[in-house]
Structure formats: C-alpha cells, structure tokens
Design brief:
- This protein is mainly alpha-helical.
- The protein has five domains: 232 residues, Calponin-like domain (Actin-binding Protein, T-fimbrin, domain 1), CATH 1.10.418.10; 136 residues, Up-down Bundle (Methane Monooxygenase Hydroxylase, Chain G, domain 1); 82 residues, Up-down Bundle (Methane Monooxygenase Hydroxylase, Chain G, domain 1), CATH 1.20.58; 230 residues, Methane Monooxygenase Hydroxylase, Chain G, domain 1; 62 residues, Orthogonal Bundle (Recoverin, domain 1).
- The protein contains 32 helices and six strands.
- It has a two-stranded parallel ribbon with strand order 1-2. A two-stranded antiparallel ribbon has the order 3-4. A two-stranded antiparallel sheet has the order 5-6.
- Helix 15 runs antiparallel to helix 17.
- The protein is rod-shaped, with a radius of gyration of 56 Å.
- Pfam families: CH, EFhand_Ca_insen, Spectrin.
- This is Actinin, alpha 2b.
- It is found in: Cytoplasm.
- GO terms for molecular function: actin binding; calcium ion binding.
C-alpha cells in the first residue's frame, strides 16, 4: 500500500481551485455548479455510492437528502475503507445528525484529507455543492489516490493508464477526462483491451457516439459489475462533460481490470508452486518404487548367500561356484548402478526441496538411504563369507576325496592281507606233526608274528585316516563300520596269534629238528616282502600339492627311495640264494619232501613278481611327478600373469580416486569446468573397464585350476572389485554433488565468484583436508566471513547444518547454509496472499473460483488436497487455502 497522501480541497463561499488534482474549473461564488455538470455529478456520484452501499444491503435515492443524518455516510465510509467508525448517534434531532456527519468528516480527515470550508451543518442542511464536493473528496481518497503508474499518481496515473491501454486503437486519443470520452470509443477500447470477447471493436463507428456509449455502459454493467454512472445523452449534449464524473466512472474500470491482472499474477504464482510440488511428488514416488525393488532384490539374494549347506560331491560344489560367478558378473553389477542412481535421485530431490523452501523428503519406514546402505552392507558381508565358504568347502571335498581313496586302498590291502589269516591261526595241525614239522610250524608262526607287527603301522594309519574322514563328515557310518571291522579283525588276529604261539611253545620241547635254511628264508623274505608291499603302496600313493616346492620335496624323497634299490636288490639275491641253497641241499641229499617252505607263505615267484612290479612303478612314479611339476609351473605362470595386471590396476584405481578428490576441491575454475573435468575422468574410467574384465578372466582361470594363493601380489580379485565399485560410486556421487551445486547456484542466483569464495573459505578451515569441518573450525569460518555469533545463534545455525549432531559440517551442508543466507525463495505467506487475491479477500475459496482462475491440472490438484474451510459463515464446498499453503512448506499437517 502506498503511503497516504495528504489531500487538500478548498471551498470558499463557492467552489475554488482544486489544488490536489490541479483542476482548472471553478464554481461560482453563489455556490452554484454548471447545471449540466451538476446533473452528471449527481448521477455518477449516486451510482458510485450505491455500488458500495449495496454491499451493506442499502442504497440512496437523493444524494443531498439521504446523507443528511450522517448514518449512510458513515456506513459508506465503513464499506469502502474496511474499518469501523465510532458508534453513530441514533437520535433524529439536528445535533444528532451534525454529530454523525462530524464523525464521518473526522474519519476522512484522519486519512490525510484536509476539508476546507466543508462543515457538518452544510451537509445536514442539504447543500448540494458541499455534498457533491464531499463525495468527490471521498472518491479521490479511496478510489483514485492509490492509482500509480510509473511513479505518477492520482489523476496523472489514471490518465497514463488509460492512454497506454487505448494506444493501439484507431480513432482513440485520450488526453483528458472530458472531451476525449464523448464519442464512446475510449470506453469501448478499455473494455476490448481487457475483455475482447465482450465486443467487436472493428465494427464500431466514431460517428455513432450514442451507440458506442450505451454499448460500453451496458457491457460494463452486465459483465464487469460496474454500475451505470453516466448518461450517454448528457455526455453528448454537454460541450465539455464533467471531469469528476468521467474520472469516477473510469476509476471503476481501472479497479475492475487491475484486480483481474492481480488475480492472473496470483494464479501464475500458484501454478508455479503447484508445478514444483507435483514434480517433487513424482520424484518421491519414483524413489519409493526403486527403493522397494532394490530392497526386495537384496531380501531375495541375501538368504541364498547365507545358505551354507554343503554339497556331497566336488562337481556339485563347482556348480555352486559357477552360480556365484554368474551372480558377481551378471546379476550384481546392474544393482550396484541402481543403488548409486537411487542415492543420486535422493540427493537431487532433497536439493530441489531445499531450493523451493519445502520440507525435506522422508522416505517410507525402512526405505531411507541409510536403510538401503545397511541392507547392502549385509548383502556384501554375506557375499564375502559365501565365497570364502565355497573355496574352503571345495578344498575340504578335495581333501576328503583324497583321504577316502587312500582309506579304500589301505583298507583293501589290509583286508586282502588278513584274508584267511584267522583260519590259519585257528588250525590245530601241530597235534599230529612230527618234531621237524612242529619246529617248522613254530618258525612259521614267528615269521607270521613278524609280518603281523609290520602291519601294525598300517592298521594305525587306517584308523587315523578314518578319524580324519569323520572330522570331515565323510560317509561316517560306512567308514566307521569298515574301520571297526578291520580293528576287530586285527584284535582277533592278535589274540589268535598269542594263543597259537603258546600252543607251539608247549609243543616245541618235543620238536628238535628245524630246517635252518627255510627258517632263514622266512625271516628274511617276510620283511623284504613287506618292504616291497610298502614300496609298491608308496609308489602308487596319491599326492596333492599346490606349489613347485612341494613337488620338489616329493621328487627328492623319490630319489632317496631309488638310492635304496641296489641294497634291496642285494637282499633279494640273498633271499633267492637261500632258496637255491635249499634246492641244492635237497638235491644233494636226495630229500623227497616237497619244496614248500614250512616257515613261510612267501614264494620266490611272488618275490620276483613284486620286484618286477616295483621296477615298473619307479619310472611311472617319475613320470607322474614330472607331470605334476609341469602342472605347478603352469599354475605359477597363471599367478604371475594375474599379479602383473593386479599390480597395475590397483594403483591406477587409487590414482583415479585421488584425482577425483583433487578435482572436487579445486577453487580456481567454475563448477562447469569441474563438471567437464569429472566427465573426462568418468570417460577414462569407463574406457578402462576391459582391463577389469580381462583380470576377471585370469582370476576365473586361476580358480578353475584350484589355485588359492599368490605370493606375487597383495591384491586379490575381491580388492580389485571393491576398489572398482568404489571408484564408479565415487565419480557418480562427485558428479552429482557438482550438479547439485550448479542447481543450487542457478536456482538461488549465486554467482560463480560467491561459490568460489564459499569453497575457498571451506577449504581453508578444513584442517584435516577430509571434506568436512569440525564445530570449532566452522565457528571460525563464520566469524571470518563477518558473522557476529552468540551462543544461541551459533546453536541455531548448527541445528541447520548438522541436524544429526555428528560434530562435523560437510561441504554440501555449508553450501546449503550459505545459499539460504544469500538467496530469497517463495514462502507460505506469499502463497496464502496469492490465494487471498483469487478469493477476493475471503478467508476461503470456492471450487468454481479455483477452476476459473487456475489451469485445469493445477485446479484439480488443489481441489483434491485442499481441506474444507471450518470457519464461520462459509458456504458449502468452501476450501481452506491457508492450511493448504502452510502444509506445502511443512509448517502444518493436512
């Protein structure tokens, strides 16, 4: 509202010059007006007064009579000012009327208007000149004074407004408020300029002033709610129409059309605010959808990764490992991108909400960015443990298979050796033998005991392998059953052996002849045979190694074994010599008995066959060890190949991380320069992806070869994967932060120089150079920038920049605070004021008004969300725009 202007109107025994409006006309000293002007003023002022008194349910018929008691005059002033006047006197005496008129005149004077020569007595006495002068003063003050166009006011402003609005129209030239309006075209031009739908200006004729005037007056009364204040015939028949009457009528056009323009401006503001709100709601819905889908994927995937149920075979575990590789290579990378995009969308939405002065977006319960990050962390923890478990289980199954085969071989060999031994030990052949035979049986039994003692280690080895298989949970029942069977048989053999020895020793006293050669053969052939059995078993023993050093150790042990072969061959020849000696003695002395050694079950053919078998197995063992050495060399090449790439890729990723950090902290250039540099870095990173894929291929070859360690590098594939994913996330987040700063800068009108100053101040007080300021550093930064901080003010600022009370202020929070301090935004009060204009100053608004003033989409948006108005005096369907506007800015809840 403009400052009140002091208005001075002079009356001195007649109508003198009107200084405020510089009107040149004078009333004569006999207090008479020009009759034509007086008639025009009567009609115009009466209609003007009635246009306002109708709002109070009354009107006047005779302007000089109906204001004499002062009651309707006070009522008129209350209606046009919106203020309450003192309570009027209700008496009918003259002094009551004078008192009421004086109250009205005092109210007019209180509004900065000087009333000269107008007294309450003249109004009470029905003085036409004074009454019309008083009404004109009221019109000037309440209808014309506040009109302002380009720093002009009152009459000049109203005239300039008319000239601008009618300038494009043919035959219209507004220079004053009398003769310029006689042909009616000026009135029609004003109507057509603002409401072209009401008349066709091209069809009007300058030579038909009566038709033009009546057309304008009728349209104004019917469509613009402007009462008919002028008479067309009076204007035409008067050489110079009354200026006051014309100005009064034209001011009604100004207020009618100015209100429409103001409503249009208010509607545009509301459309803008609602458009921003609709866009934000769409982003919120999109965030909720993406968050739900990502969390659902994590919820489905995590139990699979947490499942630690082992498979029974190596092939099944290898299939599980292949499924895990498909998950890491095909299924997880798109979800990493979705998670990164979700965080970017969330940050962009929060920035837009801050820029538009809206409350921050709070996702549904369980869908916060922190919730998603926590769920993702749980997924990765399960993933890491799953891969470790897979590799451990594969190693276990490999060990189990090896031990199971070894157990079967040793158990089978022992069972084959023990087969029939129980029956032999249970015989009672010694009861019917000769002395020589009994001695032979005794010696044979001693040889068996020697063999039995030699098998003690094998039984213990079988038991130890069975125990290890039990610990590895391999076919526990079957292994234990077989092991128990072997141990029971071993115990029984031991018992039977002891019993037979006792029986033979009891009989030994009766026996005196023993064939020493057979005995010697038995004693030497049994250990040698056992040695050959052990040698064949060792030469056929399966082995599992992981390094060339382990293979070399096996080769060295094998070479040591081969070094013992000459000594073994000498023993073999010696044993065969004993057998040959027996044959020689038997032939020499004509012995007729059989050549079966009574002390040993080992035949020379068996020794020869086993010896030939040992000689065959030695080169086979050499070949197997050389093949394993070649395989381990191939594994070593795979390790070196992987290490060479990993040692390049790891430092490269770290260098890009440092480059991104330096770029995000640069001050010299613009944010667009930083964005360009970051985009270039992003392009370089994307172009580097084939190196990561090649490393994944090498890693797959290593895992398929069951190579589990690599001494040539400290980088594992997991390190490279985590570093690569962190690099992709960091570049995306940094680009998003720069985009957010550009959006904030552009939306808030902040210059690049200001942004550089903000960054320079932040970097100076970022003591630890970690992208955040501590509380004391932030206080020092504000003081350096000119803030006068008390404890209460600093606490208020810390709530804004650090709502979670972490004790640190990030760069984004610092920028948000500085932009909030230096920029202006829409407020809830501005939106309420805009709605009040559309509602014609009512505290509520109707559905028809919303649909008339706003575009259809915004109107229906308001109707759907605006609560009913609960105040008194509201018609059905009235809506509360105040509650709606404050809810938009988070200041209340709908």
């Amino acid at each position: 509202m403009m400052n009140q202007m002091e208005t001075t109107v002079h009356y001195d025994n007649g109508y003198d010059e009107y200084d405020y409006m510089m009107q040149e006309e004078e009333w004569d000293r006999d207090m008479l007006l020009d009759p034509a002007w007086e008639q025009q003023q009567r009609k115009t002022f009466t209609a003007w007064c009635n246009s306002h008194l109708r709002k109070a349910g009354t009107q006047i018929e005779n302007i000089e009579d109906d204001f004499r008691n002062g009651l309707k005059l006070m009522l008129l002033l209350e209606v046009i000012s919106g203020e309450r006047l003192p309570k009027p006197d209700r008496g009918k005496m003259r002094f009551h009327k004078i008192a009421n008129v004086n109250k009205a005149l005092e109210f007019i004077t209180s509004k900065g208007v000087k009333l000269v020569s107008i007294g309450a007595e003249e109004i009470v006495d029905g003085n036409v000149k004074m009454t019309l002068g008083m009404i004109w003063t009221i019109i000037l003050r309440f209808a014309i004074q506040d009109i302002s166009v380009e720093e002009t006011s009152a009459k000049e402003g109203l005239l300039l407004w008319c000239q601008r609005k009618t300038a494009p129209y043919r035959n219209v030239n507004v220079q004053n408020f009398h003769v310029s309006w006689k042909d009616g075209l000026a009135f029609c031009a004003l109507i057509h300029r603002h409401r072209p739908d009401l008349l066709d200006f091209s069809k009007l004729n300058k030579d038909d002033p009566l038709g033009n005037l009546n057309l304008a007056f009728d349209i104004a009364e019917k469509h613009l709610d402007i009462p008919k204040m002028l008479d067309a015939e009076d204007i035409i028949n008067t050489p110079k129409p009354d200026e006051r009457a014309i100005m009064t009528y034209v001011s009604c056009f100004y207020h009618a059309f100015a209100g429409a323009e103001q409503a249009e401006t208010a509607a545009n503001r509301i459309c803008k605010v609602l458009g921003v709100n609709q866009e934000n709601e769409k982003m919120m819905e999109e965030y909720e959808r993406l968050a739900s889908e990502l969390l659902e994927w994590i919820r489905r995937t995590t139990p699979w990764l947490e499942n630690r149920t082992p498979e029974k075979t190596m092939s099944e575990m290898q299939r599980k490992l292949e499924d895990f590789r498909d998950y890491r290579r095909l299924h997880k990378p798109p979800k990493v991108q979705e998670k990164c995009q979700l965080e970017i969308n969330f940050n962009t939405l929060q920035t837009k909400l801050r820029i538009s002065n809206r409350p921050a977006f709070m996702p549904s319960e369980g869908k916060m960015v922190s919730d998603i990050a926590s769920a993702w962390q749980g997924l990765e923890q399960a993933e890491k443990g799953f891969e470790e478990w897979l590799l451990t289980e594969i190693r276990r199954l490999e060990r189990v298979d090896h031990l199971a085969e070894k157990f079967r071989q040793k158990a089978t060999n022992h069972e084959n050796w023990a087969s029939g031994k129980e029956l032999i030990l249970s015989q009672k052949d010694y009861e019917t033998t000769t002395l020589t035979e009994i001695r032979a049986l005794l010696r044979k039994h001693e040889a068996f005991e020697s063999d039995l003692a030699a098998h003690q280690d094998r039984v213990e080895q079988i038991a130890a392998i069975a125990q290890e298989l039990n610990e590895l949970d391999y076919d526990v029942a079957s292994v234990n059953q077989r092991c128990q069977s072997i141990c029971d048989l071993w115990d029984k053999l031991g018992t039977l052996t002891q019993k037979r020895r006792e029986a033979l020793e009891r009989t030994e006293k009766l026996l005196e002849t023993i064939d020493q050669l057979f005995l010697e053969f038995a004693k030497r052939s049994a250990p040698f045979n056992n040695w050959m059995d052990g040698a064949m078993e060792d030469l056929q023993d399966m082995f599992i190694v992981h390094t060339t050093e382990e293979v070399q150790s096996l080769i060295a042990a094998h070479e040591q074994f081969k070094a013992t072969l000459p000594e073994a061959d000498a023993e073999r020849q010696a044993i065969l010599g004993i057998h040959n000696e027996v044959q020689k003695i038997s032939q020499s002395y004509g012995i007729k008995s059989s050549f079966i050694n009574p002390y040993s079950t080992i035949a020379t053919e068996e020794l020869l066959n086993k010896w030939e078998k040992v000689k065959q197995l030695v080169p086979q063992r050499d070949g197997a060890l050389q093949e394993e050495m070649a395989r381990q060399h191939a594994h070593e090449r795979l390790r070196r190949q992987f290490a060479a790439q990993a040692n390049l890729i790891g430092p490269w990723i770290q260098a890009r991380m440092e480059e991104i950090g330096r770029c995000s902290l640069e001050i010299g250039g613009t944010l667009e320069d930083q964005m360009t540099q970051l985009k270039q870095i992003e392009h370089v990173i994307i172009a580097y992806k084939p190196n990561i894929d090649k490393l994944e291929g090498d890693h797959q070859l290593i895992q398929e070869s069951l190579v589990f360690d690599n001494k040539h590098t400290n980088y594992t594939m997991e390190h490279i994967r985590v570093g690569w994913e962190l690099l992709l996330t960091t570049i995306a987040r940094t680009i998003n932060e720069i985009e957010t700063q550009i959006l904030t800068r552009d939306a808030k009108g902040i210059s690049q120089q200001q942004m550089n100053e903000f960054r320079s101040s932040f970097n100076h007080f970022d003591r630890k150079k970690n992208g955040a300021m501590e509380t004391d550093d932030f206080r020092a930064c504000l003081i350096s920038m000119g803030y006068d901080l008390g404890e209460a003010e600093f606490a208020r600022i810390m709530i804004l920049v650090d709502p979670n009370a972490t004790g640190i202020v990030s760069f984004q929070s610092f920028i948000d605070f500085m932009t909030r301090e230096t920029a202006d935004t829409d407020t809830a009060e501005q939106v309420v004021a805009s709605f009040r204009i559309l509602a014609a100053d009512k505290p509520y608004i109707l559905i028809d008004e919303l649909r008339r003033e706003l575009p259809p989409e915004q109107a229906e948006y308001c109707i759907m969300r605006m609560p009913p108005y609960a105040g008194p005096g509201a018609p059905p369907g009235a809506l509360d725009y105040t509650a709606f506007s404050t809810a938009l800015y988070g200041e209340s809840d709908l």
